[in-house]
């Protein structure tokens, strides 16, 4: 399993409009091969938002980053200073603290 954390500043878009935009995009994310889950996150105080993605493996994450949805996010002026970080998941301790099966990273 692999995790990606994406964060950015919201610029020129209201919180309500951003949430509507996310709801509109969610079905497209649900179709991404290798995506286990995406948590849509927002911090009202700092006007920052983003997502925590879990992927079946690093290759799935890299394929997403090479694709149209990620490129659109990078090019969207409302999502300023976009930053993406990726991590391998430590399977053994995560199995202890998770209610779902966790495979070792490839």
Chart the SSEs and their pairings.
Blueprint: E1 2-10, H1 15-30, E2 35-43, E3 48-55, H2 58-65, H3 68-75, E4 79-88, H4 91-97
Antiparallel strand pairs: 1-3, 1-4, 2-3
Written description of the protein model:
Helix content is 37%, strand content 34%. It has 106 residues and is α+β, with helices and mostly antiparallel strands. The chain has one domain (2-97): 2-Layer Sandwich (Alpha-Beta Plaits). It has a four-stranded antiparallel sheet. The N and C termini lie close together (8 Å). The relative contact order is 0.28. The model has no long low-confidence stretch (mean pLDDT 92).
Any key phrases for this structure?
globular, alpha+beta, Alpha-Beta Plaits, single chain, four-stranded antiparallel β-sheet, 37% helix, 106 residues, 34% strand
| First-residue to last-residue Cα separation | 8 Å
Approximately how much beta-strand content do the residues carry?
Answer: 25-35%
Give the strand line-up of the largest sheet. 2-3-1-4
Order of helices and strands: EHEEHHEH
Radius of gyration: 14 Å
Largest sheet: 4 strands, antiparallel
Mean pLDDT: 92
Counting DSSP H or I runs of 4 or more residues, the number of helices is 4
Overall structural class, as computed from helix and strand content, comes to alpha+beta
| Helix percentage | 25-40%
Shape: globular
CATH class equals Alpha Beta
